[in-house]
Specification:
This protein has 398 residues and is an all-alpha fold. The chain folds into 3 domains: 33-114 and 124-190, Hypothetical protein af1432 (Orthogonal Bundle), CATH 1.10.3210.10; 204-324, putative deoxyguanosinetriphosphate triphosphohydrolase fold, CATH 1.10.3410; 327-390, no CATH class. The chain is 57% helix and 0% strand. It has helices at residues 35-44, 47-51, 70-88, 92-101, 110-121, 129-140, 154-162, 179-182, 198-221, 227-230, 234-246, 252-282, 287-291, 302-320, 323-345, 352-355, 364-375, 379-390. Helix 1 runs parallel beside helix 4, helix 3 (70-88) packs across helix 12 (252-282) and helix 9 (198-221) runs antiparallel to helix 12. It is globular, with a radius of gyration of 22 Å. The mean pLDDT is 91.
Length: 398
């Protein structure tokens, strides 16, 4: 059994809510919740967060109640991220906030929907789900009287933008940034050439841990591969063999759960050991010291990355490219692309409030309005809209 020894109190290199860099629109800080707690609460209460319950992780949301959606995935990421942050003495609220908010910008149907929107938006500045998350929290959420978006702290916006690493090299690569980032009035203030703070790095690795393990679980439950198939992967095979040794009479369902649970623990343990090693070498005194490094401080060890590579390869070949998933995602991509093309060429059929903001067919303004509309759809809503607009009987009486 792995035993974790958490840092006592807040580490020097943690993000300090009392030194947060502020919000776009200044607001009284209040005494009951830290700025990062308020950010987390705003994300949880946002409409974009609620819609994640109807958005694909791998399987289209209506395929079954068991499989992960973007919402359940985000909750699992948050649990892992908060646990890692606690052990390392980081700000748990900021880490959890970034975990909960990291997928807000995903369109319906997962990466197939993203690819379809990116293709449609290619002449108009492109589409990227991380950039769309920024667009949601800065502009599209319309809940507050004093501002558009959620008016989050700089630290949360920075973590959303670059939790996976720097987006530019010094001033190089700016022209390749997604339009939704370049459209932010003060995007340069996010220091996109540096690594993010430690809590954002925790969110990124927690995302990796969560999807690797729940994809094993979902793939097995869906029958895309068997326990014996995936046990050919050394890392996974060792975990299942250990469960069998401890519980020889365990049912397969419980064995899967125990093995996945153990794998999460193994991955977290490696991240903690490697991160402590990197922190000891860098000896950062603040979160800004971590940002100034030329490498991430939170991550897997090189030896574990080598052990994990066969698992990623297995899931890619046997799950993400399984013919059943390919068929489902091929249909999903056509739904998104056909909706995009139709709305772009005929914005008069958009809902009234959106139509009134368009400036005609096939323009950049209209494309971005259409993109925002489709990106916000759940799987079920996109399917319903497509059926109404492309079926002969969609809006006609039966």
């Amino acid at each position: 059994m792995v035993k974790f020894s958490p840092v006592r109190g807040r580490a020097d290199y943690a993000s300090d809510p009392n030194k947060a860099r502020g919000r776009r629109i200044a607001q009284p800080s209040g005494s009951e919740r830290s700025p990062f707690q308020r950010d987390k609460d705003r994300i949880i209460h946002s409409s974009a967060f609620r819609r994640l319950k109807g958005k694909t992780q791998v399987f289209v949301a209506h395929e079954g109640d068991y499989y992960r959606t973007r919402l359940t995935h985000s909750l699992e990421v948050a649990q892992i991220g908060r646990s890692i942050a606690r052990v390392l003495g980081l700000d748990e609220d900021l880490a959890e906030c970034l975990c909960l908010g990291h997928d807000l910008g995903h369109p319906p149907f997962g990466h197939s929907g993203e690819d379809a929107l990116a293709a449609g938006m290619a002449p108009f500045g492109g589409f990227d789900h991380n950039a769309q998350t920024l667009r949601i929290v800065e502009h599209l959420e319309g809940r507050y009287a004093e501002f558009d978006g959620l008016n989050l702290t700089w630290e949360t916006l920075e973590g959303i933008a670059k939790h996976n690493g720097p987006l530019v090299t010094d001033k190089q690569g700016v022209e390749d940034l997604p339009w939704a980032i370049r459209a932010l009035a003060d995007w340069e203030a996010l220091e996109l050439h540096t690594f993010a703070g430690p809590e954002a790095q925790v969110a990124a690795i927690a995302d990796d841990i969560a999807y690797n393990n729940h994809d094993i679980d979902d793939g097995l439950r869906a029958g895309l591969f068997s326990v014996s198939d995936i046990c050919e992967v050394p890392l996974v095979g060792e975990a299942f063999a250990d469960v069998r040794r401890r519980y020889p009479d365990l049912s397969e369902d419980r064995m899967i759960h125990e093995a996945v649970r153990d794998l999460i623990g193994i991955m977290v343990a490696d991240v903690l050991a490697e991160t402590r090693k990197r922190l000891a070498a860098a000896d950062p005194k603040s979160a800004d010291d971590i940002r100034a490094l030329d490498h991430a401080v939170v991550g897997f060890s090189d030896s574990f990355r080598a052990k994990e590579a066969p698992l990623r390869k297995f899931l890619f070949e046997n799950m993400y490219r399984h013919y059943k998933v390919n068929r489902m995602m091929g249909q999903a991509a056509r739904v998104v692309r056909e909706l995009f093309d139709l709305f772009l060429t005929d914005p008069t059929i958009l809902p009234t409030d959106l139509r009134n903001r368009c400036d005609g067919p096939n323009t950049a303004v209209t494309a971005r309005i259409v993109c925002d509309y489709i990106a916000g759809m759940t799987d079920a809503y996109a399917i319903s809209e497509h059926r109404k607009l492309f079926s002969v009987t969609g809006y006609l009486p039966s």
